[in-house]
Write a structure and sequence with these properties.
The complex is a heterotrimer. In chain A, 32% of the residues lie in helices and 26% in strands. By secondary structure, chain A is an alpha/beta fold. In chain A, 47% of the residues are buried. Chain B is globular and about 55 Å long. By secondary structure, chain C is an all-alpha fold. Chain C has a domain at 58-284. Chain C is globular, with a radius of gyration of 22 Å. The chains are: A alpha/beta, B mainly alpha, C mainly alpha. At the B-C interface, α5, α11 and α13 of B face α5, α6, α11, α13 and α14 of C.
Chain lengths: 509, 307, 351
């Protein structure tokens, strides 16, 4: 069996980051090959290159013995490479058949519904992918919608199928069905690249697994010959974490108490499942996990931006599940949102106006509906100096500042109000070392002054160096809560990837 | 009241009044199904109406007038498409700009070319067609036969449009582009080209509607003779749930209201109240009374293709 | 100062390009653009009565323009300002002729405030709630309400409850106590101009100095971030459209009380759609609206003069207006043109 796909030394550099750095990959015919890695490891970039969406800066791509120079996905599709994205590219109001044949309709001017349905039923049969061609996509379950995406690839005669985090949206039952389909496809000689961060699935379904970290391929193993621990180690690495100087851990009373919280998304799929944890004053609680495992929904629920299905949220012993967002701010909760430009700032407002985005209705800034700009400017002047926001002209529009300084505006606003509880999501994303250091210092300062901090981050170092306790979330469930002093990358990595291995049994090799 | 309803004049007037609404509404369907909100149909109708008279007068042939109107109308549509689709400028504002421009431009040309006495009274008109056997059927005959050729053209276009949009591959692609341009792009479809097509078709239909006003229904052009029909056509399209038959039905409803109010000349009370009804109904339809009216998902949202 | 210049250079450029294209159109159709524009200018600003009439023309444009600008600032298109204007005019007229014996300092404010409330409800209740709670696009809803308002006024005036005795479809004259006096005799300029300027100042203050304005602009710029900051987005949408309608209604009232003194049965005031253009050119800044309104008012009065004296059809004003807005909207064209010029220059330097 010759190699179907050969990726040789592919490098792709974006303005601030080496997304792929000398990546190597070999996929044989009829092989299920898993790609394992954290966020930012470079998996998506690699897939986009194979699928023709990006051009590599150097290196070679060989498919079926032929060197590929793809000008776009259409060429990749022609060569026989199919991809099922994490976010489906489907048109809900059209039928299954219409979605599948779109762009390559059975010939003629008129839409030949009979022929299209026939073709689809044939593929359906061949690959054991049962579907009703006349059903409207919007009426299908997520699992079936995914099947439509797979059928799209086979309608165009794919020999290599790339599945990007396919089980992210599926129920356990649907996942099993998908695995059954994958095994069938393998029997037919189809090769599958399966991107995942879930160790149990990788172990169950793949023949080979390649681990990526920070843009590099750090290892390719035969799945049968490895174990979850080894994979987790490769995935998160073994660098020694530089611990930041932290003063003693002296937690006070419980500030935030979450019990059996369940939150669903717009499609009514549970994203947060019976989560419970407490956070005390004077402690930093880090929430570690791979993106998409329920953190977003959890935080939105805590802030009143998303309704909860069931459960209790207590703040200083008072139930706040029904409180509107503004009331929660008034109680002393601060929030640094994930997306500073879309959620945290009004780009077309000045720095000064952004600094009072939460408090403009307070009596110190407005009297009888009129904004007291003297006070607003005083506040702006103070905060700009204290948080070193540059340029110092607080009348500039926020959109004119650099990303790091924009984040500082948000920080100044949320930290500067002396919150009792601070929820910080990705507070140092996209910032340079100096700025990161500064923000970490401020967070620790807050903690020492008695605030409770819930830190959500995709950066393991950040979580490990700052947190007093670390909760790891996977698939909407808190796998475990670890003591910050004794948590290791290996342990956290395992939990992040969904492994149920008892932390006690872990040997630090 | 009964006499009014039994008068075939009412119903043929309904058809006549509905035509200049149905045509742009039909055109709007193509544009919006491909994802572009075309508010400029009002302006295109007006420009087409003027140039129909101009070309008909210059060439002595109403058909050439129609052709000229269509060419000019489509040119304006393509300019709009360029600004809206390629330059991704705000579609509503652009539409309004074109309408204001059209109003002034046509009136300006009317005065400079034809002088203040208006368009010549001997401007050739598009013919009415009397269908042999049908015209003798009592009551129905008076309605179905004797209409302008454009009316019959419109009927054909409605069926053709429905077939095109819902039963051809190209129509499928247009609809895909208006619902999820990203998905269409990954399927290898040229989103930009199809949106230009949608807008061009809306220009074509609006132009025919405009020509109908000036050389089909009447044989002259007067300032602002489109009287907001381009906007009403949008309402008809929404009311008709972005389908050709639905748009036609809604246009008939609006046309009926106009025709009825013309018959009720002397009881002004009923006349104006009846004129209000189609608009009230449209608002009700928009807020979801009688089922949610769902527009194409990507309607009005400019799209930049990935590189 | 630099900031101010930077923000107005685009609109000014659009006006210049429109004037140039207008000149081309005039040349092609056999007119002399210079004499045409000259008579346009004289018609607008040449004599004291002309200036007064230009200012008078600007009054409804300023006030309605403010209304449209308020909506735009909140991210909403109030295309139906025309209808809200009519509702305001209807209410003001009715109050104007129905109440006898009121002193002017009660009669006028009463009429104005009632008109404002009526306009506000017309814009806020149906289009506002529809948009806020069902997402129905306000372009169509406000436009439909506009037609309803116009037909409603026809109904009232054509042998309806508000028609004057006789055969002309118009309302009775408003009482003297409801009249806003003229400033300059034999012109249309009334004290309404002060109301217009006061309105502009008020809207400026409201937009940039109050909590309400802050929230409206925030929601207009970024609904998501506003929601995250705890603002009530649907409520703001309703309030913005209502406020927009309030000013459009006020404009109708001022025009009736100050200029027309009765309601006529016409199909359009001509101000509703022009107000949209006024707001766009002014980039929705209340003070800018005053200047933009003056420009379009000047185009209006000037073009009438131009038609009489240079025989250039007055509708050229609409042509120029349409072109201005086209270029303001497609401002990327200007950038494309700029880069084309830069490329040409580069090639010249290289050769």
């Amino acid at each position: 069996m010759s190699a179907l796909l050969e990726v040789n030394n592919i490098t792709k550099i974006f303005p601030k980051v080496r997304a792929n750095d000398g990546v190597n990959l070999v996929v044989e015919e009829g092989e299920i090959h898993a790609i394992l890695g954290e966020n930012g490891a470079g998996k998506s970039t690699l897939m986009n290159i194979i699928y023709g969406l990006y051009r590599p800066d150097s290196g070679e791509l060989k498919f079926n013995g032929e060197v590929l120079n793809l000008s776009g996905p259409h060429e990749a599709i022609e060569k026989g490479i199919g991809m099922v994205h994490q976010h489906f590219m489907l048109i809900p109001v059209l039928t299954v058949a219409e979605n599948i044949v779109l762009g390559a309709e059975p010939s003629g001017i008129s839409y030949n519904r009979k022929k299209a349905n026939e073709l689809i039923r044939e593929i359906s049969r061949n690959y054991h992918l049962e579907i009703d061609p006349d059903a409207k996509v919007k009426d299908l379950s997520v699992g079936l919608q995914q099947r439509v995406e797979i059928l799209k690839a086979f309608y165009r005669h794919a020999k290599l199928l790339i599945l990007d985090e396919p089980t992210a949206m599926l129920t356990p039952q649907e996942t099993e069905e998908l695995f059954g389909i994958m095994r069938n496809l393998k029997k037919q000689g189809i090769s599958i690249i399966f991107i995942s961060h879930k160790l149990d699935e990788v172990k169950e379904i793949s023949d080979k697994v390649t681990v990526m970290r920070r843009g590099k391929t750090v290892g390719t193993l035969n799945t049968k010959e490895t174990n979850e621990q080894e994979l987790a180690n490769l995935m998160v690495g073994r660098e020694v974490v530089l611990r930041v100087e932290k003063s003693e851990y002296n937690p006070g009373d419980v500030v935030l108490s979450v019990k059996d919280l369940t939150v669903s998304d717009e499609q009514n799929i549970e994203k947060v499942k019976n989560v419970s944890f407490d956070i005390r004053s004077g402690e930093i609680f880090g929430l570690a996990g791979i993106d998409g495992n329920g953190q977003t929904e959890l935080i939105e629920a805590l802030m009143g931006l998303r309704p909860i299905k069931s459960g209790i949220i207590k703040y200083n012993n008072n139930n706040i599940e029904k409180l509107p967002t503004r009331e929660r701010y008034k109680l002393g909760i601060s929030y640094i949102p994930q997306d500073r430009q879309q959620e945290g700032l009004i780009m077309k407002f000045s720095v000064a106006d952004n600094l009072i985005l939460k408090e403009y209705k307070n009596s110190q800034y407005s009297k009888n509906g009129v904004i007291q700009y003297k006070r607003v400017f005083e506040n702006a002047s103070k905060k700009v100096e204290e948080f070193d926001i540059r340029p110092t002209d607080y009348n500039l529009l926020a959109g004119n500042l650099s990303g790091g300084n924009q984040q500082k505006i948000i920080l100044a606003r949320e930290v500067g109000s002396d919150p009792k509880l601070l929820i910080a999501v990705q507070p140092t994303r996209g910032m340079d070392v100096g700025a990161i250091e500064y923000i970490h210092k401020r967070l620790l300062q807050l903690r020492d002054e008695g605030s409770a901090i819930l830190l959500v981050s995709l950066e393991l170092e950040e979580i490990m160096s700052l947190s007093d306790r670390i909760g790891v979330i996977h698939n909407g469930v808190i796998m475990d809560i670890l003591d910050g002093k004794f948590a290791t990358r290996e342990k956290i990595g395992l939990l992040m990837a969904g492994s149920q291995i008892d932390a006690k049994e872990v040997e630090v090799l | 009241m009964k006499e009014i309803l039994l008068n075939p004049q009412l119903w043929s007037a309904t058809l006549a009044m509905a035509t200049p609404l149905a045509l742009p509404a039909l055109g709007g369907t193509f544009s919006e199904r491909s994802g572009v909100v075309n508010i400029a149909m009002e302006g295109i109708m007006l420009i087409a109406a003027f140039f129909a008279v101009l070309f008909a007068h210059l060439t002595g042939s109403a058909w050439l007038g129609l052709l000229g109107a269509i060419v000019v109308g489509m040119i304006v549509a393509v300019i709009f498409a360029w600004a809206a689709v390629t330059l991704t400028a705000d579609q509503v504002i652009l539409g309004m700009a074109i309408n204001i421009f059209a109003s002034g431009f046509t009136a300006y040309l009317l005065n400079t070319i034809f002088g203040f006495s208006g368009t010549p009274t001997d401007t050739p008109m598009l013919p009415n067609i009397n269908i042999p056997v049908i015209k003798n059927i009592p009551f129905l005959g008076q309605i179905l036969s004797g209409n302008s050729v454009i009316v019959y053209l419109m009927i054909i276009l409605i069926f053709a449009s429905n077939y095109f949009l819902f039963h051809t591959n190209l129509g499928l692609r247009i609809r895909a582009v208006g619902e999820n341009p990203e998905a269409a792009e990954t399927a290898g479809i040229n989103v930009i080209k199809l949106r230009y097509l949608g807008v061009a078709l809306s220009g074509l239909f609006s132009a025919i509607g405009g020509a109908y006003l000036s050389i089909g229904l009447l044989n002259s052009f007067s300032t602002d003779m489109s009287s907001g029909r381009g906007y009403i056509a949008l309402a008809a399209m929404i009311f008709g749930k972005w389908t050709p038959f639905g748009s036609f039905g809604a246009a008939l409803l609006f046309g009926f209201a106009t025709a009825l109010s013309m018959q009720l000349q002397n009881s002004a009370i009923s006349k104006n109240i009846i004129m209000m009804l189609p608009y009230i109904l449209t608002v009700l339809a928009l807020v979801g009374v009688g089922g949610k009216s769902v527009s194409p998902a990507a309607d009005g949202v400019p799209y930049t293709p990935k590189k | 100062m630099k900031k101010l210049l930077k923000s107005i250079y685009m609109p000014i450029l659009a006006v210049i390009i429109a004037i140039i294209i207008g000149s081309i159109i005039m040349l092609v159709t056999g007119f002399n653009p210079l004499s045409a524009y000259a008579s346009l200018f004289i018609g607008a600003f040449g004599t004291l009565p002309n200036i007064a009439n230009t200012l008078a023309n600007a009054v409804p444009l300023i006030i309605t323009g403010l209304g449209v600008a308020i909506a735009f600032n909140a991210g909403l298109f109030n295309i139906g300002a025309e209808g809200q204007y009519w509702i305001g005019a209807i209410v003001a007229t009715w109050i104007g002729y129905s109440f006898k014996g009121l002193p002017w300092y009660i009669h006028i404010p009463f009429a104005l405030i009632a008109a404002m409330i009526a306009g506000g409800l017309w814009g806020g209740i149906v289009p506002g709630f529809a948009k806020a709670y069902t997402g129905a696009h306000e372009v169509i809803t406000t436009m439909m309400m506009s037609y309803v308002a116009i037909y409603f006024s026809h109904y009232l005036l054509e042998f309806g409850p508000m028609m004057e005795k006789g055969s002309v479809p118009q309302s009775p004259l408003i009482k003297d106590s409801a009249v806003i006096p003229t400033i300059l005799r034999n012109t249309q300029l009334s004290y309404g101009i002060f109301i217009a300027i006061a309105a502009a100042l008020f809207v400026y203050w409201l937009m940039y100095k109050t909590v309400w304005g802050y929230e409206m602009r925030a929601v207009g710029f970024n609904q998501r971030a506003s929601k995250y900051a705890g603002m009530n987005v649907p409520l703001n949408i309703v309030l913005s459209l209502s406020l927009s309608g309030i000013f459009a209604g006020l404009a109708g009232a001022v025009q009736i009380l100050g200029v027309q003194h009765r309601l006529y049965d016409s199909f359009t005031s001509g101000y509703g759609y022009t107000a949209i253009v006024v707001a766009l050119l002014a980039k929705n800044n209340p003070i800018g609206v005053v200047f933009s309104a003056l420009l379009f008012a000047a185009l209006g009065t000037g073009s009438q003069y131009m038609q009489l004296n240079a025989q250039v059809p007055g509708q050229l004003a609409d042509v120029i207006t349409g072109l201005i807005i086209f270029f303001v909207a497609a401002d990327k064209i200007i950038e494309v043109l700029k880069s084309m010029f830069k490329k040409q220059k580069k090639e010249e330097l290289a050769s």
